[in-house]
Amino acid sequence: MALSGFGSLSRVPWVIAQTRDARLSVKSMRPKLLLVTTALGSGGAERHVVRIANELVGLCEVQIAVLRTGGSYEQFLDSQVPLSGVAPEIPGKSTVVCSLTSGNRLRQLLKTYQPDCCISFLDPAASAVGTAIRSCGKKIKHVISCQNNIAVTHKNFRRSSAVILLPRIKRAYRECDCIIAISKGVERGLREYWPKLNAPIQVCHNAIADQEELSRLALVGSPSHRLDNSSRQLIACGRLTRQKGFDHLLKAFQKVRKSHDCTLTILGEGGERGRLQELAVLLGVDRYVTMPGFIDNPTEKFCQADAFVLSSRWEGFGNVIVEAMACGTPVVASDCPFGPSEIITNGVDGLLVANEDVQQLSDAICAILDDRAMSLRLAEAGKRRAAEFRSDLVAKRYLDIVRSLIDA
Q1: pLDDT digits (tens, 9 = 90+) for 291-332
Q2: Tens digit of each residue's pLDDT (9 = 90 or more) over 62-120
Q3: Angle (nearest 5°) at CA 270 between 264 and 274
């Protein structure tokens, strides 16, 4: 006997399967995403989250949850992207405490918003998301965006943080559905650090600038175009921590000063400020070094510099390298693990030097200051390279990864 609307009983499973596949297809075309990070301020990973969210507007439903509100990058977030704080507001609390106390609000947000996928950025956020998904009882995909050299980062955790947070982070990585590594080096590091990871790892570099910003920067002339012999300007940017190697930069700058009239500006804030200021005095270069602190949008400063210098001991990618390239500022970078060598082709669109080698760093800076033709060539090639990290391209890659998970 035929069933009305189906024709025969034998066709019922086929119709059910087709209906389910259609629902999955619709869901994957315009999925609901929740991006979770520690805060929207003070770092390249956080700025990357804002850029991705802004590009995803119109392509899918997207919200952001942060462990701490009030970050300076919130002002750059598209008004169509809802922002939620998921940890209790306790002045002065650490990121670890925020991660541990975010469970209730984050779990409630998952239940009310019902995202198809959560993408967490930075390990404290990954820990919080993993715990919340387990406890809310819903089938939500979890993608972790690994933003740094994980082995070195975890080794440098404070002892108290490691005891409390590392087991939770490890479980989140073990149970997540996919990991996005921001460089091939980070991917290799993950496989070496956790060889039994179950989740697939996809490599996707961070978003650096949108098309409008790149077009605006393309019209700005770098000081590399100057023909006068006025004092030259060097710039660096990053948290004032051991990772960024600013102690090596100051020592290299002392060597550069012996033959060049130049100044150095280090943008950023952190616990190493006092030690770096003391080192500048000890080296006799304090009169020529300024440390103005964190700046929301450093591109104007980059455009004014004759060279950008990255002196890091380790990185995950090196967002600031591409930001400086987009400004038409020649780049000198330490070939640290990981990131710089995936961005820069040495001698083509920037200069790479051996990691933690002060003399090579000094020599490369001097080469850029001395050879105006090379400086201009590196600057122009750097602009072309920076365009490959446009935020719309990176956001599409993220969306493709999410869609493949939903359709699986």
Answers
A1: 999 998 899 999 999 999 999 999 999 999 999 999 999 999
A2: 999 999 999 999 999 999 999 999 999 877 788 889 999 999 999 999 999 999 999 99
A3: 70
Pull the structure tokens for residue 55. 């590009």
SS3 content of the chain, % helix, strand, coil (to 5): 50, 15, 30
Which stretches of 10-60 are assigned E, i.e. beta strand? 32-37
How far is the C-alpha of 341 from the C-alpha of 320, rounded, in Å? Answer: 14
Picking from 114, 37, 150, 62, the residue whose alpha carbon sits closest to that of residue 398 is 62
**Sign of torsion over alpha carbons 162, 168, 174, 180:** negative
Please state the length of the chain. 408
Q: Which amino acid is at 252?
A: A
CA distance to 52, 134, 299, per residue, from 237 (Å): 22, 38, 11
Residue 17 neighbours by CB distance under 10 Å = 10
Long-range Cβ contact pairs of 103-111 (< 8 A, separation 24 or more)? 103/128, 103/131, 103/132, 103/135, 106/36, 106/65, 106/132, 107/132, 107/135, 107/136, 109/34, 109/65, 109/84, 110/34, 110/136, 110/138, 110/140, 111/136, 111/138
Residue from 72, 156, 168 nearest 129 by CA: 168
User: What is the distance between the alpha carbons of residues 121 and 119, in angstroms, rounded to a whole number?
Assistant: 7
Q: What is the distance between the alpha carbons of residues 224 and 233, in angstroms, rounded to a whole number? A: 10
Q: Domains along the chain?
A: 30-207+391-407 (3.40.50.2000), 212-388 (3.40.50.2000)
